[in-house]
Amino acid sequence: MEIKVFASIKEKIGSDTIDLFVGDSITVGELKNHIFVDYPELDGEVFQVAKNEAFVKDDEVVTSDDSLALIPPVSGG
After folding, report:
1. Neighbour tally for 10: CB within 10 Å
2. Where is coiled-coil annotated (predicted)?
3. Which residue, 3, 5, 14, 38, could crosslink 68 as a Cys pair with Cβ 3.0–4.6 Å?
4. DSSP 8-state symbol, 45
5. CATH no. for residue 36?
6. What is the pLDDT of residue 55?
7. Is 31:57 a contact under the CB 8 Å cutoff?
8. How far apart are CA 24 and CA 40, in angstroms?
9. 63: in domain
10. What is 2-43 written as a DSSP string?
């Protein structure tokens, strides 16, 4: 499962994508747990998960066919 990352997350892991091997489907909450285990440098990082360009909650099921992204908080002015 390929997940696009941006901003501070991208800087911390040194890549613009995360590749996870989690099977065919998983909840967003389970996905976050896998990310924090595989990328301990993201511990404490705040982000939302986008599935097919829409924010989703932790109980949403995602599959390897979905377009996924981790979106950190953004400030502007």
Report:
1. 16
2. none
3. 3
4. -
5. 3.10.20.30
6. 97
7. no
8. 24
9. yes
10. EEEE-HHHHHHHTSSEEE----SEEEHHHHHHHHHHH-GGGT
CA–CA gap between residue 17 and residue 68 (Å, rounded):
10
pLDDT digits (tens, 9 = 90+) for 49-69: 999 999 999 999 999 999 999
Please state whether the predicted TM-score (pTM) of the whole model is above 0.70.
Answer: yes
Which tokens hold the place of 54?
């829409």
Question: Domain limits at 36?
Answer: 2-71
pLDDT in tens, 12-45: 999 999 999 988 899 999 999 999 999 999 998 9
**Residue 38 in domain:** yes
User: Length of the chain in residues, anyone?
Assistant: 77
Domains contained in the chain, number: 1
